[in-house]
Predict the structure.
Amino acid sequence: MTKRHPVSRREFIKLSGIAGSALLLSRCSILSDNNPLSTATNVIRSQPLPIPELLTGTEIDGKKVYDLTMRRGSMVFVPGKQTATLAYNGNILGPTLLMRKGDEVVINVTNQLGEPTTTHWHGIHLPAAMDGGPHQRIENGDTWQARYTIMNEAATYWYHPHLMGKTSEHVYHGLAGLFIIKDPQSELALPDRYGFDDIPLIIQDKIFNADGSLNYPSGHEGIKGDHILVNGAVTPTFNAPAQFVRFRLLNGSNARIYNFGFSDDREFHQIATDGGLLEKPVALTRLRLSTGERAEILVDFSGQETSQVRLVSYSSELDNINPPWLSNALDKSTFDIMTIHVNSATANPITTLPGSLASIDRLQESQAVKTRSFELEEGFSVGSFSATFTINGQTMDINRIDETIQLNDIEIWEVINDADMPHPFHIHDIQFLILTRNGSPPPENESGWKDTVLVMPRETVRVITQFGEYADPDKPYMFHCHILEHEDAGMMGQFVVV
Ligand SMILES: [Cu+2]
């Protein structure tokens, strides 16, 4: 196969002058048409926040067994119309899997979609054969069994399909669910009553056609919807008890980056990153969260009975997030995610903020035996009018291993964004610590374990990690951009641990 040299947009404008700019503009208008607005005018909003079912697993022979079935479902978002969806077990998204550190788990994943896909356990440390990436394809009608021991820290993780070229479409139509991992060794006085003061929030954006169907146009560079869904309901309402409430935020969107805050600008505290608790709560009024990232926050509603506040995204405050050819109206505004009505407190509410949360065993730069560089580039194949998204100049090839890592090695991975848009970089299997963003230490709320990091245009992010426990020369793990359309377009590579 011959490879075209991708030309960056900047190079392209420079090289081809006015004619090129005109061409680029016409391409841009084609692309912005790929992020169309909903034609449905009466989408149902403000329903009560759905709470995904909690699966605690069935004990069989000392293992916890969970059953997931990927199926076609149907929802009503437009009055009188059916919206075709995909889901695990129900009609949209999937159950929350509750697990404890040390659990041996067995997850049976049955595919009844009528087409192949996979299910990947995002953020979980596990053998590559159990990862659920593109190599663990589940044919229609088949059941794939994933078996592993939970070694991760207590935090919020998630699962979703990961079939090459199909991930974005499958997630957009509803295939995604959460894991909550708890650690019996470090139970803290944090809100932990699921659905009462411990609330999962899966945030996504979608476009609705007038006939109720989801609009998912092909050939785009990152689909952004004009309706915000939380746990599968459009800008829902939530009745919060008048006490500390823990929200487990997952940005499960295909491409949209959020800048969360509250409509009254109140302070809240982030307590966990993707892969564990922070050392102590970090006070924030804004929380930037890119696709694939999670954050747990505590919000204090004590003494605020009968008041109301909205969780919003202050998207207009974000710089550099949206190149002109991918912006839509929401990017330039502050928009609602969810309305919170404060009710009376529950019995035994959590009313104090813990002073400290966890100790983090920090890997030191001096321990690293190797530094690898990953250059993210967004190009443009002249002549074919197709966008290219590359890592170190290459797109994903399922038959090529890009990196070989020695078991137990500590490494620094340096991710360099040469592109015009932000790219959230995700590494399978491991959790890392961010060493620097453009040479400076990361903000305090990014100082914990992470598996996905947003790398802004012209930014270099250095992370440190250890590739422990699992080696398999034949089965690779993935690293990739978590804008799902970029991943599907090949902004992904493979590594093996040997
Ligand atoms: Cu990307």
